């Protein structure tokens, strides 16, 4: 039963208030992209056992989508941040690096 | 025999006698008794039969670890199987019956299994019942099923209700013994929000039973003072009869409060399930005593030593007149002493240790009790009740030295901390060699959301095995938890407990050490599931060497006590068989709940009408009064049809169709999704969302639109109206409103976050009435207030105005092919407007119609229905909806997906109509067969039905469906595979245009 | 291998069962094998078994990080059915179901396949149409299912509440030869048979890397050293992504938690398996008498084998509503498994970008029922290097083509 802090309304949201949205920072490929690009956008997933960046919506709260960095093996939450960004904030990445020296990084 | 002592009993009220029954026998107990205590007081030691061999079983323990004494409790709507007598509080009129036997508890035919037990070792069923093949299902399995299973299945609906409640705290203390109370005091005094849970009705744990002395006073005084102080703190909640059931991630804890188990039928909920979110969790859950493995250790009358003490001290019940104590530690001497002090006989203490020193043995000796050091039990004598024990050298192979007559055996194999809650979320354990048990490893706790420790173990649950150590440990654990929470604890002194010096215990896993196979086949590890030492050794011998394999192969620890008594002993036997150390073998996984929780409590109050939230349109009540037959559509319920007296549903639907086609039908369309999309970039946004172009839609006009997912598959459709320069209103399907609104927000927030667009789901803000049929305009004109003529309001336009005094927005759209207006009014006026339509429409033949008539009329017109013609694999092109897909737009959601090979293939199945050659209705879901079979031998198919109805208008069966190259095959006759009542058949049908009725739209364009 | 029989038990009983041999050997790995299977769960062991039985390939090692059968094989709700809608699914699940019919005899190990019948309740008109479609599809696929009316549902499941106020039962899709089996026994039976064929089951051996040369697999680095192989089969369910990563490719797979629970055992009260998909719950009664209950998955990536309570709550709410008499039973144990979900929720049995390396994964929530069929198809793929008809449609490249095998279409039932 996760708790994630919504970066918009500041509420420590209970999992039942949230709606999950799987991997974050996917780059959309539309017409003009190759089959491989489109496939990777739609299907290929990092699915890491460890640090994961993912989407959540505070659906029974403020209604905003936000992003979270979470460990899929321990469920530790490193931080949450607004969805309007194409990559994780640098301070969060640094924080994760400090906690998980073996982590290969975001890319 | 077991009996009630003349005096004593901490918990019973001798002035309050309570009558109850067991197997129909009327018996008496006292207020404060558990059912177990009351049964023992009435010399009812035999209470059940074991799972596999149906051996007679008596009460072993005094708490939730009890494996044997499970009964059927109550009757009718309050019947409950598998109730543990040791945790059931006695109440007046309690009715219990024993389980798992036939015909009676005393004489059980199933015991035949016991006599052939030798042929039924662990896993025997994997090795036999293999031939002949049908025998497993028809002969062997039914016998095994009947023989297994404990209590009877309830027959009635539960007469009780259950409640759920939420609670939040900084520190959750699980366990109301002295350690838990001390931790709560530390946290409470620091101002932290604290909740304390105690699974029984009493606080104090073992300390109060064992007469511990804290700060120079009886432990009872400490407990009373602690409860008084905690009770005075507004930041502390103390809950008795509440079991901490499970620890889930991020500090989430489930607790089961037995509110009215002991007062059934008093109107209160039976249980209340607490859903607690705690900053930190402190487990002061104590320890559970382990049995010893000697032959015949499962006979009724063999009990845990401390439990015997519980019965004597708490309930003044003696399990036997002559009790032999068998032990490998000093603690069991307390039992001997307590029995002796209660005036009972203790013929001997059999201690596996050769060197017995220490204060407690000295005291026992002083009381004149015979101590047999270095000895073990060779065998317990007796059948349905212990009659004696034969003793042997612990170091030997079981040669009998002596026999001692007795009617009870109190055994102690040491103590195992209750580590369940610590372990639920991955807390690790460490093996403590001194005490031969696993205890929490503080260095590897379960982790919280922030990566810090989530659970702190305290007291005996943490391996601090004396009262003094437990108090100090709990105090320290509470302070550590508070520090981690950022709450400053107040300085304070740890209460001091007088300590009795105990000599170390000695791990004894088999008694005697060199027991023969015959003896090992009579040493029970898991009493309920009938798993013996020999079974675990067999598993190891056969290669089931992981602890999980052994557990599953032998069913060790899989009974209703989940191995509370058997796990460590079984593990030790396994380790011995594998020649490995116990910690190397490891434990099985601890899973919630700690003790079983009633399903009703987990399900909560959502039953019957309130099973799920019900969405009602403003006209819902009217429909119900009109006798509508409703169908669930998402959380809505919509009228399927409005049958009249004597009509079948089918007749009613046909009447509704004909009436609407010929006169006037009224449909409650309020469930239709309505989403406002507004802003400078709204048009651009809708152009991405829909396959068609919405930005070019003129104000005042309507346009049909399709939405696809990124795969390209059709996901929703509806009419879009342009309200003003920056505002569009998007209609969605009834089931799709919330999904589509979320879909819009997803794209706006996560992909095009710089676009200035706002959305609002106003589905419930408006009631909507479809006025349909040749008389539709007449009705609106009679209501009056605005011009609804063909000229003023042509097809696919909308207008605001008033009708009959109601503020309305009228959309001239049609899903039936008839002259049709969909009229939106504010929800609060919905019912009044609906009634006004009926009143004014009476002279024009107005009738309400339901969803089935709606479906038939749209099918007659060849209109697609999301969910019927689509199923998540259909693209708009399949439905010949290319006209609604913009060729000019560079991009829209789904466009790229539709370019993939399989979706762009010319061989896709496409929408056509079908008419059976015999005019019948083609069965729903039927497939069009093709020649031959595929590589897997399956009949080839080339199409399928998507919608099929009897058309009341055309008086014949009509169908829509998908067919390979369909539109190019008009007029062709194809064959459907049909399957009804188990009979396969075929049906020939002609491929036709899917528009069966009024193809030119004459009726709607008037 | 000494055969199991009632006579063998009688013989052993006389010597207190001291003469039973190991069900499977516990060997050290050889330097090289013709084929290595990573993962000794049901699917991996079945793959090895059919490699030996159907293709005579017995120089095989099955490498397992933990203990054989210790993953999802041992933590599912044991349902076996093949009433699938799409042809490729129906083919492989029906193959599996039919192999289950004789598996005890084939393996000389009683896996307790119990074709006690399986019902999928229709509780909306939409669901009714979906199941009618399935019945028609199944009839042409050679899968024996039928549509039954509410009265027959009540006859088969006397404890069901067919007149619930919110979702009355409108009928059901019935597969009379669907049912359950003893999950652990399936793994153990295959393991014993593989070992008897001379295959090495190497437990407690973690794969750390995949070695390849010129785009072709050469072997695996493990915690017990390097082991060479001519062919490699990766059959590791929830950890497919991790092992694929070692082999140098990415999968369309996400790992999520699926939870289940059992009640305390009671005397027999329900013979068939019932799935209620509108309200999200399914239930059967084990031979031990426990009600075995499952529901939906969590919606986030999770490798902990723990799930969130609200899914359990939702499932129980649905089942207490459907079977009111279970309200006073008690939950004995709940647990979770890690399931690997693909983009269309159907499995992958496929060649991979790495030569001679084959993948079997993505069984999601429905893997147990497929074990024999999955092993059969995977063995054929590994032996021949090309998929046979059972596996042909389950290629990992189907997503690029948009050629999904989507089972959720009929009535929202994935697996």
- % residues in beta strands of chain C: 25-35%
DSSP strand tally of chain C: 18
Uncertain ranges of chain C = 411-415
Structural category of chain B: alpha+beta
Helicity range of chain C: 25-40%
Broad structural category of chain C: alpha/beta
What would the keywords be for this entry?
heterotrimer, B: 1006 residues, alpha+beta, Ubiquitin-like (UB roll), FAD/NAD(P)-binding domain, seven-stranded mixed β-sheet, six-stranded mixed β-sheet, 27 helices, 29% strand, C: 415 residues, alpha/beta, eight-stranded mixed β-sheet, 11 helices, 29% helix
Structure in words:
The complex is a heterotrimer of chains A (107), B (1006) and C (415). By secondary structure, chain A is an alpha+beta fold. Chain A has helices at 35-42, 90-99, and strands at residues 3-5, 12-14, 19-23, 51-57, 65-71, 77-82. Chain A has a single domain (3-99), classed as 2-Layer Sandwich (Folate-binding fold). Chain A is built from 2 helices and 6 strands. The mean pLDDT of chain A is 95. In chain B, strand 49 and strand 50 form a beta hairpin. In chain B, helix 5 (178-189) packs parallel to helix 12 (467-485). Chain B is elongated and about 115 Å long. Chain C contains 11 helices and 18 strands. Strand 33 (597-598) of chain B pairs antiparallel with strand 16 (330-342) of chain C, so a sheet runs across the interface.
Q: How do the helices and strands line up, and which of them pair or pack?
A:
The complex is a heterotrimer of chains A (107), B (1006) and C (415).
Chain A (H helix, E strand, L loop, with lengths): L2 E3 L6 E3 L4 E5 L11 H8 L8 E7 L7 E7 L5 E6 L7 H10 L8
Chain B lengths: L2 E2 L8 E10 L2 E7 L3 H7 L4 E4 L6 E3 L11 E4 L6 E5 L10 E4 L13 H4 L8 H4 L6 H14 L14 E13 L3 H12 L4 E4 L7 H5 L3 E2 L2 E2 H14 L3 E4 L2 E7 L3 E7 L12 E13 L3 E3 L12 E3 H11 L1 E2 L4 E5 L3 H11 L7 E3 L7 H8 L4 E3 L1 E8 L3 E8 L8 E4 L2 E5 L2 E3 L2 H5 L4 E4 L4 E4 L14 E3 L9 H19 L31 H4 L3 E3 L4 E2 H9 L5 H8 L12 H12 L3 H4 L11 E2 H5 L16 H6 L3 E5 L2 E6 L7 H14 L1 E5 L4 E6 L3 H8 L12 E7 L5 E11 L2 E6 L4 H14 L7 E4 L4 E7 L3 H8 L14 E6 L2 E6 L8 E7 L3 H12 L4 E3 L2 H10 L34 H4 L2 H4 L4 E8 L10 E7 L5 E13 L4 E9 L8 E8 L2 E10 L14
Chain C lengths: L5 H8 L18 E7 L3 H14 L4 E4 L15 E2 L6 H15 L1 H5 L10 E5 L2 H17 L4 E3 L1 H7 L14 E5 L3 E2 L2 H14 L3 E3 L4 E7 L2 E7 L2 E10 L5 H8 L5 E11 L9 E4 L4 E5 L5 E11 L7 H14 L7 E13 L5 E4 L5 E5 L9 H14 L13 H4 L14
Parallel strand pairs in C: 1-2, 1-11, 2-8, 4-13, 11-18
Antiparallel strand pairs in C: 3-7, 4-6, 5-6, 9-10, 10-11, 12-15, 12-16, 13-14, 14-15, 17-18
Helix pairs in contact in C: 2-7, 2-10, 3-10
């Amino acid at each position: 039963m996760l708790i994630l802090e919504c970066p918009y309304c500041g509420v420590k949201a209970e999992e039942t208030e949230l709606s999950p949205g799987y991997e974050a920072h996917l780059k959309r490929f539309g017409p003009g992209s190759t089959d491989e690009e489109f496939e990777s956008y739609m299907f290929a997933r990092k699915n890491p056992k460890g640090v994961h960046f993912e989407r959540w919506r505070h659906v029974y709260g403020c209604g905003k989508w936000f992003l979270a960095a979470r460990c899929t093996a321990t469920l530790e939450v490193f931080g949450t941040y607004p969805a309007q960004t194409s990559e994780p904030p640098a301070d969060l990445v640094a924080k994760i690096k400090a906690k998980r020296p073996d982590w290969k990084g975001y890319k | 025999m077991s009996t009630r002592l003349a005096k004593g009993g901490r918990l019973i009220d001798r002035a309050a006698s309570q009558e109850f029954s067991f197997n129909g026998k009327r018996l008496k107990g006292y207020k404060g008794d558990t059912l177990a205590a009351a049964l023992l007081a009435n010399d009812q030691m035999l209470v059940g039969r074991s799972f596999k061999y149906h051996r007679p079983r008596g009460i072993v323990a005094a708490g939730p670890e009890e494996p044997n004494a499970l009964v059927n409790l109550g009757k009718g709507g309050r019947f409950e199987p598998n109730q543990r007598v040791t945790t059931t509080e006695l109440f007046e009129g309690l009715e219990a019956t024993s389980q798992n036997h036939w015909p009676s508890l005393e004489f059980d035919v199933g015991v035949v299994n016991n006599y052939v037990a030798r042929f039924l070792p662990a896993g025997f069923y994997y090795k036999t019942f293999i031939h002949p093949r049908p025998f497993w299902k028809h002969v062997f399995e039914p016998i095994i099923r009947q023989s297994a299973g404990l209590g009877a299945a309830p027959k009635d609906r539960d007469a009780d209700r259950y409640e759920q409640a939420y609670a939040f705290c900084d520190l959750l203390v699980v366990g109301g013994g002295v350690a838990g109370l001390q931790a709560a005091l530390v946290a409470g005094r620091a101002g932290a929000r604290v909740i304390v849970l105690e699974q029984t009705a009493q606080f104090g744990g073992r300390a109060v039973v064992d007469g511990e002395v804290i700060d120079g006073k009886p432990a009872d005084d400490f407990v009373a003072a602690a409860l008084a102080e905690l009770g005075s703190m507004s930041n502390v909640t103390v809950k008795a009869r509440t079991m901490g059931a499970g620890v889930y991630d991020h500090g989430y804890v489930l607790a089961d409060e037995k509110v009215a188990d002991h007062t059934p039928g008093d109107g209160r909920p039976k249980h209340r399930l607490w859903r607690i979110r705690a900053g930190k969790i402190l487990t002061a859950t104590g320890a559970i005593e382990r049995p010893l493995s000697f032959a015949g250790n499962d006979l009724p009358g063999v009990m845990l030593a401390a439990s015997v003490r519980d019965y004597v001290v708490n309930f003044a019940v003696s399990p036997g007149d002559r009790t032999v104590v068998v032990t490998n530690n000093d603690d069991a001497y307390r039992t001997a002493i307590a029995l002796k002090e209660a005036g009972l006989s203790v013929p001997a203490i059999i201690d596996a240790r050769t060197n017995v020193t220490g204060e407690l043995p000295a005291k026992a000796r002083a009381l004149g009790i015979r101590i047999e050091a270095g000895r073990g039990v060779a065998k317990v004598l007796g059948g349905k009740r212990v009659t004696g024990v034969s003793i042997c050298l612990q170091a030997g192979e079981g040669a009998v030295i002596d026999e001692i007559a007795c009617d009870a055996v109190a055994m102690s194999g040491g103590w195992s901390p209750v580590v369940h809650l610590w372990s639920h979320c991955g807390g690790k354990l460490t093996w403590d060699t001194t005490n031969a048990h696993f205890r929490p490893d503080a260095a590897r706790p379960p982790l919280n959301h922030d990566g810090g420790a989530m659970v702190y173990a305290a007291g005996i649950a943490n391996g601090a095995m004396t009262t003094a150590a437990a108090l100090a440990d709990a105090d320290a654990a509470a302070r550590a938890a508070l520090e981690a929470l950022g709450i400053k604890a107040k300085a304070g002194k740890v209460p001091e407990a007088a300590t009795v010096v105990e000599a170390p215990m000695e791990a004894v896993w088999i008694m005697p050490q060199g027991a023969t196979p015959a003896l090992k086949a009579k040493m029970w590890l898991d009493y309920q599931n009938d798993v013996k030492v020999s079974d675990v050794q067999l598993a190891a011998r056969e290669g089931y060497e992981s602890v999980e394999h052994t557990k599953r192969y032998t069913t060790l620890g899989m009974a209703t006590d989940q191995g509370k008594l058997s796990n460590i002993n079984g593990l030790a036997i396994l380790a011995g068989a594998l020649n490995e150390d116990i910690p190397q073998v490891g434990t099985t996984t601890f899973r919630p709940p700690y003790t079983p929780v009633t399903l009703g409590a987990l399900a909560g109050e959502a039953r019957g009408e309130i099973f799920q939230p019900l969405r009602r349109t403003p006209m819902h009540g009217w429909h119900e009064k009109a006798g509508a037959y409703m169908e669930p559509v998402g959380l809505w319920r919509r009228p399927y049809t409005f049958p009249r007296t004597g009509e079948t549903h089918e007749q009613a639907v046909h009447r509704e169709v004909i009436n609407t086609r010929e006169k006037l039908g009224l449909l409650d369309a309020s469930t239709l999704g309505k989403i406002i999309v507004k802003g400078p970039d709204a048009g651009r946004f809708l152009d991405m969302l829909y396959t068609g172009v919405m930005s070019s839609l003129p104000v005042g006009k309507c346009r049909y639109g399709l939405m696809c997912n990124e795969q390209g598959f059709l996901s929703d459709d509806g009419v879009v109206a342009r309200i003003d320069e920056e505002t569009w209103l998007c209609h969605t399907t009834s089931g799709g409103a919330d999904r589509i609104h979320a879909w819009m927000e997803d794209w706006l927030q996560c992909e095009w976050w710089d676009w200035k667009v706002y959305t609002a789901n106003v589905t419930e803000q408006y009631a909507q009435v479809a006025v349909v049929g040749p008389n539709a305009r007449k009705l609106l004109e009679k209501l009056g207030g605005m011009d609804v003529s063909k000229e003023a309001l042509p097809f696919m336009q909308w207008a605001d105005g008033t009708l009959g005094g109601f503020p309305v927005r009228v959309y001239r759209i049609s899903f039936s092919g008839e002259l049709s207006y969909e009229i939106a009014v504010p929800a609060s006026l919905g019912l009044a407007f609906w009634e006004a339509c009926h009143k004014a429409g009476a002279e024009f033949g107005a009738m309400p119609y339901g969803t089935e008539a709606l479906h038939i009329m749209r099918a007659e017109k060849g209109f697609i229905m999301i969910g019927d013609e689509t199923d998540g694999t259909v693209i708009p092109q399949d439905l010949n909806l290319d006209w609604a897909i913009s060729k000019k737009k560079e991009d829209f959601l789904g466009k790229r997906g539709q370019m993939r090979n399989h979706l762009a293939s010319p061989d896709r199945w496409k929408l056509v109509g079908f008419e059976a050659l015999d005019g019948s209705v083609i069965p729903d879901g039927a497939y069009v067969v093709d020649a031959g079979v595929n590589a897997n031998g399956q009949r080839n198919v080339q199409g399928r039905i998507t919608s099929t109805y009897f058309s009341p208008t055309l008086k014949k069966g009509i169908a829509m469906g998908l067919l390979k190259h369909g539109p190019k095959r008009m007029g062709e006759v194809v064959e459907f595979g049909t399957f009804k009542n188990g009979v396969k058949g075929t049906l020939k049908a002609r491929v036709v245009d899917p528009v069966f009725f009024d193809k030119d739209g004459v009726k709607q364009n008037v | 291998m000494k055969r199991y029989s009632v006579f063998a038990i009688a013989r052993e009983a006389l010597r207190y069962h001291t003469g039973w041999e190991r069900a499977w050997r516990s060997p050290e790995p050889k330097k090289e094998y013709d084929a290595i299977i990573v993962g000794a769960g049901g699917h991996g062991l079945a793959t090895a078994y059919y490699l030996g039985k159907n293709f005579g390939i017995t120089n095989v090692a099955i490498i397992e990080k933990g203990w054989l059968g210790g993953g999802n094989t041992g933590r599912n709700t044991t349902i076996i059915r093949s009433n699938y809608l799409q042809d490729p699914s129906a083919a492989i699940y029906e193959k599996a179901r039919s192999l289950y019919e004789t598996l005890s005899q084939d393996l000389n190990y009683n896996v307790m396949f119990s074709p006690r019948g399986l019902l999928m309740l229709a509780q909306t008109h939409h669901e009714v149409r979906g199941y009618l479609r399935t019945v028609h599809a199944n009839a042409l696929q050679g899968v024996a299912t039928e549509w039954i009316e509410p009265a027959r549902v009540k006859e088969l499941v006397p404890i069901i509440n067919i007149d619930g106020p919110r979702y009355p039962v409108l009928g059901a899709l019935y597969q009379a030869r669907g049912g359950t089996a003893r999950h652990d026994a399936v793994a153990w039976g295959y393991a014993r048979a593989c070992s008897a064929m001379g295959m090495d089951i190497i437990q407690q051996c973690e794969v750390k890397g995949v070695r390849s040369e010129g785009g072709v697999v050469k072997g695996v680095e493990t915690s017990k050293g390097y082991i060479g192989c001519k062919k490699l089969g990766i059959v590791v369910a929830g950890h497919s992504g991790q092992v694929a990563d070692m082999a140098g490719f990415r999968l369309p797979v996400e790992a999520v938690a699926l939870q289940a629970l059992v009640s305390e055992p009671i005397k027999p009260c329900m013979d068939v398996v019932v799935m209620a998909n509108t309200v999200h719950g399914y239930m059967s009664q084990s031979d031990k008498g426990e009600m075995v209950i499952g529901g939906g998955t969590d919606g986030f990536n999770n490798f902990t084998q723990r799930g969130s309570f609200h899914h359990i709550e939702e499932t129980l709410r649905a089942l207490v509503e459907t079977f009111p008499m279970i309200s006073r039973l008690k939950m004995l144990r709940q647990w979770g498994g890690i399931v690997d979900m693909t983009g269309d929720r159907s499995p992958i049995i496929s060649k991979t970008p790495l030569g001679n390396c084959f993948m079997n994964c993505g069984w999601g929530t429905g893997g147990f029922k497929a074990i024999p069929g999955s092993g059969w198809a995977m063995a054929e793929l590994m032996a021949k290097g090309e998929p046979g008809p059972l596996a042909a449609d389950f290629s990992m490249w189907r997503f690029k083509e948009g050629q999904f095998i989507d089972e959720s279409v009929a009535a929202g039932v994935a697996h």
